[in-house]
Design brief:
Layout lengths: L5 H55 L28 H42 L16 H17 L3 H10 L4 H25 L4 H9 L1 H6 L4 H15 L5 H11 L8 H8 L20 H19 L6 H25 L43 E3 L5 E3 H7 L4 E3 L6 E3 L4 E2 L3
Antiparallel strand pairs: 1-2, 1-5, 3-4
Helix pairs in contact: 1-2, 3-4, 3-5, 5-11, 6-8, 8-9, 8-11
GO molecular function: ubiquitin protein ligase activity; zinc ion binding
Protein name: RING-Gid-type domain-containing protein
Subcellular location: Cytoplasm
C-alpha cells in the first residue's frame, strides 16, 4: 500500500460502496418520482372527465322557463333532487390502478432509503473499528521517563524546527527543556545546511530563482558530475519567466539565453531550440501558446521539489527530518500493531510483546523509510545485521557471514546454489 494506511483504505472502501448506492438511489428515485407524477396526472385527468360528465347531466335536467304549450300559462314543475352521479366502473378501476402504482413506488423508495440509512450507519462503525482511540497499548510510556531519551526527543523536535527555518521556536524549546549547550549547538550545526536549502525551496515556490541560481552556480561542477538536471531546469524556468514579461523583456531574455545556455548546447540542443521558438508568441502572449504551462504553479512546485531532492543528495543530507520519518513510519505501522495487539489479547499471549527492540510482526514500510540492509540470508533464514553482514561469493550468490562460516570447511566453500568450489576468504561484504 502507498502512503495510505490500511485503516484508511478499509474505511474508504466502505464509503465508496455507500456513495455508489447513493448515486443509484438518486437515479432510481428520480425515475420513480417521475412515474408517480405521471400517474397523478392521469388520475387528475380521469377525475376531470368525470366532473365534466356530471355537470353536463345536471344541466340537461333543468326545466326550461319557456312555455312549451305556447299559451302563456305559467307552469311550475316540482322535481325530486337528482342523485349524485357516480364514476363509471372503468373510471373507478383507473383510479384504483393509479393509486396502487403510486403506493408501490412510494413503498419502493421507502425501502431503498431504509437500506441506504443502514449502510451509512455502518460507516461510523467502520471508523470506530479501524481507528482506535486507545493507542497506549502500542507504546512504551516508560521510555520517556529516562532523562537521556527525553533529551533525544527534544533534540529531534528542535532539529525539525530548525530545518523549517523556525530558529526562534527551536531556541525556545532548547531553553525550556534545559538542553545542554553542547546538544543545543549540535542542533543548529547539523541542520544549518538543510535550513539554507529549505529557504531556497520556499523561494522557488514563490517564483524567486535568485538564490537557487546562485546555489546551482556554486555547485555546478558537482551537479554536472552527477548528471543532475536541476541547473538547466532553473535556467530554463528563468528564461521562460523573462519571456513571459512580454516584448519589453525580449532583449533581456535573449541575452540571458546566450550567457547561460551555452554550456548545455550539446546535451539539450533540441529543447533549447524549442525554447527559442517561444518568441513567436510574444505579440499574442504566452498564455495563448503551447508554452503556457510554464506559467502554471505546478511547474514551479515540481521544480522546487526537484531542487530539494538533488540538493539533499549532493550534500548527503536527508530531505526529511528524523522526527517526520519516525511519525510517518509510526502512522504506517500503527494499524498493524493495533490488530496484532487485539489478537494477542484475545489469545492471552501478551508475553510475546515484551518491549524489546523487535516487534512481534514484520511491517512492510515504504522504501523512503529504509535506512539499513533488509537482506535475509536464504540459508539460515535470518536478517543480516552489522554483526552478521551479507557476503558475496565469487560465483555471485549472496549469503550471510554466519552461513559462510558454517558452510566452510577450512578455506574451502562450496556454494549452496551452484557446485562451484571457492575460497571462503575471497567473499566480500556488500551493502544494499
Amino acid at each position: 500500500m502507498d502512503n495510505e494506511s490500511w485503516a484508511c483504505s478499509s474505511v474508504e472502501k466502505d464509503l465508496t460502496r455507500v456513495v455508489s448506492k447513493l448515486e443509484q438511489l438518486h437515479e432510481n428515485a428520480a425515475a420513480d418520482i417521475g412515474d408517480i407524477a405521471t400517474q397523478m396526472s392521469e388520475l387528475v385527468e380521469v377525475l376531470s372527465r368525470a366532473e365534466q360528465l356530471v355537470t353536463t347531466l345536471n344541466s340537461s335536467t333543468q326545466v326550461s322557463q319557456d312555455d312549451p304549450m305556447g299559451d302563456g300559462v305559467s307552469m311550475q314543475v316540482e322535481t325530486e333532487p337528482t342523485a349524485p352521479q357516480r364514476l363509471t366502473e372503468r373510471q373507478v378501476e383507473s383510479v384504483r390502478n393509479a393509486i396502487a402504482r403510486c403506493n408501490e413506488r412510494v413503498q419502493k423508495l421507502s425501502t431503498e432509503h431504509r437500506d441506504l440509512h443502514g449502510s451509512i450507519s455502518k460507516i461510523g462503525k467502520a471508523i470506530d473499528r479501524n481507528f482506535s482511540a486507545d493507542f497506549s497499548s502500542t507504546m512504551r510510556v516508560d521510555v520517556l521517563q529516562d532523562e537521556e531519551n527525553l533529551m533525544l526527543l527534544n533534540k529531534a523536535i528542535a532539529k525539525h524546527y530548525c530545518r523549517q527555518g523556525m530558529d526562534d521556536v527551536a531556541r525556545t524549546l532548547i531553553r525550556e527543556s534545559k538542553m545542554s549547550p553542547e546538544h543545543a549547538q549540535d542542533v543548529f550545526d547539523s541542520e544549518r545546511e538543510f535550513a539554507d536549502i529549505y529557504g531556497i525551496w520556499v523561494k522557488i515556490q514563490k517564483r524567486d530563482l535568485t538564490d537557487a541560481l546562485k546555489w546551482a552556480k556554486m555547485y555546478s561542477q558537482q551537479l554536472s558530475d552527477r548528471h543532475s538536471l536541476i541547473e538547466f531546469r532553473l535556467h530554463r524556468m528563468r528564461f521562460m519567466q523573462l519571456v513571459s514579461y512580454g516584448l519589453d523583456s525580449q532583449r533581456e531574455a535573449i541575452s540571458y539565453a546566450r550567457l547561460n545556455f551555452k554550456k548545455f548546447a550539446v546535451r539539450y540542443e533540441h529543447e533549447i531550440a524549442n525554447l527559442m521558438a517561444s518568441f513567436i508568441y510574444l505579440p499574442s502572449g504566452l498564455e495563448n501558446s503551447p508554452y503556457k504551462h510554464f506559467m502554471g504553479q505546478e511547474m514551479w512546485t515540481e521544480l522546487s521539489f526537484i531542487f530539494l531532492k538533488d540538493a539533499c543528495q549532493l550534500l548527503g543530507i536527508s530531505k526529511n527530518s528524523a522526527l517526520s520519518v519516525v511519525v510517518n513510519a509510526g502512522c504506517t505501522a500503527l494499524p498493524a500493531l493495533l490488530n496484532i495487539k487485539q489478537v494477542m489479547q484475545s489469545r492471552q499471549v501478551l508475553g510475546m510483546w515484551n518491549g524489546c527492540d523487535e516487534l512481534p510482526i514484520e511491517i512492510d514500510l515504504q522504501p523512503e523509510f529504509r535506512f539499513h540492509s533488509i537482506f535475509a540470508c536464504p540459508i539460515l533464514r535470518q536478517q543480516t545485521s552489522e554483526d552478521n553482514p551479507p557476503k558475496k561469493l565469487t560465483c555471485g550468490h549472496v549469503i550471510s557471514n554466519d552461513a559462510l562460516h558454517k558452510l566452510s570447511v577450512g578455506h574451502i566453500l562450496k556454494c549452496p546454489y551452484c557446485p562451484v568450489e571457492q575460497n571462503a576468504e575471497e567473499a566480500v561484504r556488500i551493502y544494499f
